[in-house]
Amino acid sequence: MEVDITNKANKIIRYGLIGLVLLALIVSTGVYFYQHHNKTLTIYDAQVTGDIVQAKAKSPGKITEIVVSDGDHVEAGDVIARMESSITDEQIQQLEQNVKLAQQSLEQLKKGATMTLPAAPQTQAPSAPSYSASSQREVARLRAKLAAMQANPDAYARKEIQSVQAELNAAQAAASVPATPSVPAPSPAPTAAPTVPQNPDIIKQAEMQVQVAQAALDNAKEAQQATDILAPTAGTVMLIDDIAEGAEVKADQVVVNLMDPENAWVEAKVTPEQAKNIRLGQFAAYELDKHKLQGSVKDIVDPSNDESGEQADADGDSRVTVRISLPSGLSFTLKPGMTTTLKFAIGG
C-alpha cells in the first residue's frame, strides 16, 4: 500500500520556513538589543604603572656589578648593585683636618681676643690696636666652604677648590699676625692683658661651621664604605638605560627605579568624548600576561579641571587620564610598561 507523504512534506517545509524566519527575527532582535543597551567601550594602549621609588648611589664612583635584572622582584634591603667609591683616604684626612681647624677656631673665639696695653708713651699716644675678629670669621667661613667642596669634589672644578684653599691659607696667615700698637718712643713694661668678649653671633656661626665640617666628614666616611646599593623598598626593578657595569655615577644619582606592586595601576589616555562614558567605580576588563583580570576606575584626571591643565594644554594633549585598579595576590610578576586593552561595559 502506497502512502502519500506529499502533504506532510509540504507542511514541514512551510512551517520550517516560518520557524527559520522567526529564529532569524529573534536573533536579529537580540543583537540589536545588545548593541543598543550593552555597548562596549574599548581603549587600546593602556599600560601598567605606579609609584616609583629610586635607589641612589651614596657617593661618586663606578658601578662594578648589577645584581638584578629588569622586571625582577626585590625586597627592601636586597643588594641591587655594587660600586667602587671614588672617595680617597687623602680626602678623608683633609676633611678630618678641616674639622680640627674649625674646632680650634671655635676655641679661640670662645676665649676672646686679647690685647696688651702699654704704658702711655712720653711723646705720643699709641695708635688704636686692631682686632682679629673679622679675620677669624673669614677663616671660619673659608674652612666651611672648603669642607663642603671636598665632600663633593665632582661638583667643583679642581681650580675652584685650589682657589678656595689659597684664600684660606692667606686668611690664616693674616689672622696669625696680630696688629700691635705703634709707639714712637720706648715705653715701660706693659700692663696686664684684658680679654675682649666676642659677639655671641660669631660664636654661633663658628659652632655651626664645626657641625658642617663634622657632617661632611661623617658623610664621606659612610659613603666611602657604602659599596652596596640596596633596595629602599620592596618592588619591581626598572633598570635605567645608561646605568651598566663600568658606568661612572655621581653622589645621589639614580641607579635603579623600583615600582611598588601594592601601589600600581593600569593607566590609559582617553578622549574627552570617551571620558563621558567612564565614571569612578566603573568596572573594566583587561588581560595581562595571558591572565584575564577585572578592575575598577580609581581615578580620572581631566587636564581642563586639574591644576596642571595649563601645562597639558601647552603640550597639546587634552586627553583625560584614567586609572584602573589591579587585583591583589597576582600569580605572575607585574612589570611596569606592560600593555593591555581595556573594555568598559556601558549602557545605551
Q: Outline of this structure?
A:
The chain has 7 helices and 14 strands. The protein has 348 residues and is an alpha+beta fold. The longest helix has 32 residues, at 6-37.
Query: What average pLDDT do the residues reach?
Result: 78
Tell me the radius of gyration.
40 Å
Which sequence of SSEs, written as H and E, runs from N to C?
HEEEEHEHHEHEEEEHEEHEE
CATH class of the domain at 38-78 and 235-346: Mainly Beta
Number of helices: 7
**Order of strands side by side in the largest beta sheet?**
1-10-13-12-11-14
Q: β content, as a range?
A: 25-35%
Give helix % range.
Answer: 25-40%
Shape: elongated
CATH overall fold name of the domain at 38-78 and 235-346:
Elongation Factor Tu (Ef-tu), domain 3
Please identify which CATH superfamily of the domain at 38-78 and 235-346 we are dealing with.
Answer: Efflux pump adaptor protein, beta barrel domain
CATH architecture of the domain at 38-78 and 235-346: Beta Barrel
Structural class: alpha+beta
Compute the number of strand runs. 14
Largest sheet: 6 strands, antiparallel, barrel
Residue ranges: pLDDT <50 for 5 or more in a row? Answer: 113-131, 179-185, 308-313
How far apart the termini lie comes to 63 Å
